[in-house]
Amino acid sequence: MFQRFLSLAVALLLGVSVYAQSDLKAVYLRCEYKINPVTDVTQPRLSWELTSAVTSQYQTGYQILVATSVALLEEGKADLWDSKKVTGETTSQIEYAGKPLESRQICYWKVRSWDKKNVPGSWSEPARWEMGLLQKNDWKASFIGLNLNHLGKGKEYHLPPAPFLRKEIDVKGPIKKARLYVTALGLYEFQINGRKIGNDYLTPGWTDYNKRLYYQTFDVSKDLKLGKNALGSILSYGWYAGYLGYALLVRNPVVKNFYGDVPALKAQLEIEYTNGQKETIATDNTWKANYGPIVESDILNGEVYDANKELTGWNQTGYNETAWKKVITVSEKAERLFQSFPGDPVREVARLTPKNIKQIGAKAYLIDMGQNFAGIIKVRFKAAKGDSILFRFGEMLYPDGKLMTENLRKARGTDLYIAKGDPNGEIYEPRFTYHGFQYVQVEGLQNGLGMQDILGLVLSSATPKAGTFETDNAFVNQLYHNIIWTQQSNYLEVPTDCPQRDERLGWTGDAQAYVKSATLNNDIAAFGTKWVADLNDAQLPNGAYPLYAPAPSVRKTDTYSPGWMEAGIVYPYQIFRSYGDTRIIKTHWSEMKKFMQFLETKSKGEYVFKETAFAEVDPKGGFGDWLSVGKKTPPDMLATMYYAYSAQLMQEMALAIGDENEASHFKEINAKVKAAFLKHYTNAEGRFICNAAAYGDGRGYVDGEQGFEGHTQTAYANAIFMNLLDSTHTLKAAKWLNELVVKNGNKLTTGFLGVRPMLPVLSNTGYSETAYKLLFQKEYPSWGFEIQNGANTIWERWNSFTKEGGFPAGMNSFNHYAFGSICEWMFENMAGIKETSPGFKTFLIQPEPMNATINSLKATHRSVYGSITSAWQKKGDLITMTIEVPVNTTATICLPPTPTNNITFNGKALVASTVKPKWINRRERNTVTVGSGKYVLSYKKSALSGF
Ligand code: BGC
User: What range does the record give for the signal peptide (predicted)?
Assistant: First the structure.
């Protein structure tokens, strides 16, 4: 303080500018994408955002200090790492390069940045990270459990009770620091003195348990008390030993216990006393086990809870555990990795109160939660001892008001509570399960249910919100709402297809088609990093990426499919593009190359997949343009396009990690595939063709009986999107694409693979008006059709419900994000925020304010550099654009095709010399490039001729 005063006085005396300090400040400090995390990454990456009131501000250098204590950090004594001043604009994912870090080490860090004038800003507030357990031998704990498999009674579902484990310990003195490292084969809840530790659900998460297992670290310093403490844990079967996917439905020889059959806990409590003594309490054979009220417990099938079997006091000290059994220890697999959970934990992210409760029988009620979501209920009621209260869950009602549950297929998806008859009422909230639902049917409730008696706990992986999108058009807002809720319901531990039926698998095709949309709505960097590891763990021996990950095959014949397997390339690529993450590329490079080798071998040196090339998989050709309408785009044609696209992405990723050789290799592959594609799948005119006869009667192919055709919306949209065509051919193809849509009454024929590129391609080739017609289409198949039929999430099928036809049976979900990939177009075209370099270091602002029914729109996206805003408003003839550009980034604003002297820029006439023509989306456009700040542009609509 005194020093500062002194320098101020000296500065004043000398008459120099008072503070030689910039207002540039680092905020939102993150380590491995998280705020103050525990990580076991030995060179964790540090990131921050910058704030400054100065326009066009950017960073010219930074300095990071890392110390072993806050005090040292404050004094500027970086005993772990002083990066010294590093010149450059990088603010994201800077690898720690200080002293080697040890298990359990706590690192405090701060950063300051130099501004565009090379003046330093002040230091950031301190942040921290903590190292997890880096060595296998840091683990002293054994896996312990209780085998209750003989108690599974059900006929169709064999569901044993949930084991309870306990141990009392002595805390010998005041605690300086206490950490709980905990994981399980299966699912665990850990309690200390009766309180659940942490807010996470479904821990430790889903991985290929044979290869890796994640653990959580909790600071439990405040949960322990001097003297006796009770440690307790409830286990469940989870993804490890429970039912998975549709194994039961398809009569797979194995329907559960895919990884093992006895859930087991591995936990160690490490206490450091203020006197310096350390103590580790680890799970071992001195723990006791029993089972109690959780009679059945399964993610897909739900819970049975008998309150009469509660083990009152089991999680407190002084409990009489003589009836409890000795635990069994489960042996360790030497090759299994133990790692700190890298993703975002599943948490309660919102709470819903019911919209309506209707009595439907003597003791039965139907509750409308007002929104389809993934989660559980928390409910309070009075009941007599022994009353069975059954909760069923469904997404939709039949026209006669009855609950529809058929689409859950073999997922029993019910919770059952057997009351103890507490005169004060009972509260029930199931564990270790979740459901996808809007409606809850309760049966067996004698005393009714008030609106305040039931809550919907919305569960999702807690990926930080990164996007907002709002217009003055209720329909568009509803669509965005549906997208957000569907993403939230399905970004749940892994990117699942749907949260309700006997599936909930990390389907790779859905994931790759939707991932870019996902990044616009939420920061999925950590979630995606975790899932890409799952995906690579699941790579098949031949190099193909599987249909879903993680998961063993839940159907024997499930292998790989074009359009699905490329998730192994597309998903990490998107993490790289959205966040500028190159480590994900390096980490998985050899596996991605193995996949590219698989494609090369598979194409037999021809670099094209001709008709029937994938006849060996089931269904033949793979899933193709899944759930499309009408004639099928040949799956092999799509496979070839995806091959070219994968090579293109590999080329780009190789350049990003500085591997020129690999880049030119994949460039060559890309060129070869393009040439072979054109030769085989186009005619002299450039129209897309295929040899439909090769597929015979189409049997064995998805919707093969509908016949195959090359000249389809899906084919052109993908070919243009994936850059398979030169510029003249692109224009031709775009014209055909537009014609196909118009001739079809401005309706789509696209399925999962066709939807994603559809609107972006139309807009980017000059057919935005058609894109808007598709957006606003209300007839089947369209988003509008779903919304008109009451959708509040995105449906799996265009016709998941029709007033005339009801619900198609078999496979039908109302919460499936694949068709939500229109989100990408909403942000990139309607709002016009488009990244042009990884992490949005540079981006375009090119909105399309052309539709008469939208008068205002505002979208924001929080990139790794900070929040970007693009908003536009139409008032009479005047269009106003408001743009916010984060510090350290550059935006290129595309001007409307109106004489530039008609444009007002920040209240003044636009200065002509700032306008630069640029080639964007195949057209030369006038642009203004700006640095950080807020900009307002306005112009008269009358001068517009398409934007
Ligand atoms: C899933 C999908 C998935 C598909 C494969 C379905 O059962 O729900 O979304 O991609 O199978 O075609």
Answer: 1-22
Q: pLDDT by residue (tens digit) across 536-557? A: 999 999 999 999 999 889 999 9
Nearest-CA residue for atom 4 of ligand 1: 507
pLDDT of residue 809: 67
Q: Strand, helix or coil at 771?
A: helix
Render pLDDT for 328-341 as a digit per residue (tens, 0 to 9): 999 999 999 999 99
- Our answer on whether the CB atom of 905 is closer than 6 Å to any ligand 1 atom is no
Domain count, the chain: 5
pLDDT tens-place string over residues 400-426: 999 999 999 999 999 999 999 999 999
Q: Are residues 117 and 262 in the same domain?
A: no
Whether 866 maps to a domain, the answer reads: yes
Least confident of 336-350, 380-394, 634-648, 913-927: 913-927
Six-digit token string for 837 = 């370099």
Ligand 1 contact via 731 beta carbon (within 6 Å): no
Q: Are residues 534 and 388 in the same domain?
A: no
- Where does a domain end: 432, 461, 490? 461
Q: Give tens-digit pLDDT for 840-879.
A: 999 999 999 778 899 999 999 999 999 999 999 999 989 9
Determine the distance separating the centroid of ligand 1 and the alpha carbon of 460, expressed in angstroms: 20
Last residue of a domain, which of 830, 858, 890?
830
Is the model's pLDDT at 563 over the cut of 70? Answer: yes
Same domain, 910 and 843: yes
Instruction: Specify whether 808 is located in the same domain as 892.
Output: no
Q: What is the pLDDT of residue 945?
A: 42
Do you know the residue count of the chain? 947
In a domain, 861, yes or no: yes
Clarify whether residues 627 and 687 are in a common domain.
yes
Does residue 339 sit in the same domain as residue 351? Answer: no
| Atom number of ligand 1 nearest to Cα 626 | 12
Same domain, 703 and 846: no
Q: How far is CA 164 from CA 17, 256, 317, in A?
A: 68, 21, 15
Measured CA to CA, the distance from residue 420 to residue 309 in angstroms comes to 9
Q: Which domain holds residue 930?
A: 833-940
Domain of 534, CATH number, reads: 1.50.10.10
Same domain, 374 and 481: no
Ligand 1 center from residue 497 Cα (angstroms):
7
> If you write DSSP's letter for every residue of 707-722 in order, what string do you get?
-B-SSSHHHHHHHHHT
Question: How far, in Å, from the CA of 498 to the mean position of ligand 1?
Answer: 9
CATH code of residue 872:
2.60.420.10
- CA gap 308, 422 in Å, rounded: 10
Half-sphere exposure for 725 (CA within 13 Å, toward CB): 24
Q: Give φ, ψ of 577 to 5 degrees.
A: -65, -45
| Amino acid 391: pLDDT | 98
Distance 571 CA to ligand 1 centre (A): 17
Residue 947 lies in a domain: no
507 lines ligand 1 (CB under 6 A): yes
506 C-alpha to center of ligand 1: Å? 10
Residue 946 included in any domain: no
- pLDDT tens digits, residue range 374-401? 999 999 999 999 999 999 999 999 999 9
Would you say the CB of residue 643 lies under 6 angstroms from ligand 1?
A: no
Q: How far is CA 73 from CA 5, 29, 44, 67, 189, in A?
A: 21, 15, 18, 5, 36
Say how many Å lie between the CA of residue 548 and the centre of ligand 1.
9
* Burial 10-46, CB ≥16 within 10 A → b, else e: eeeeeeeeeeeebebbbebbbbbbbeebbbbbeebbb
CATH of the domain at 91: 2.60.40.10
Q: What average pLDDT does range 625-651 have in this prediction?
A: 98
CATH code where residue 369 lies = 2.60.120.260
548 CB within 6 A, ligand 1: no
Any ligand 1 atom below 6 A from CB of 626: yes
Tokens of 716: 């052109």
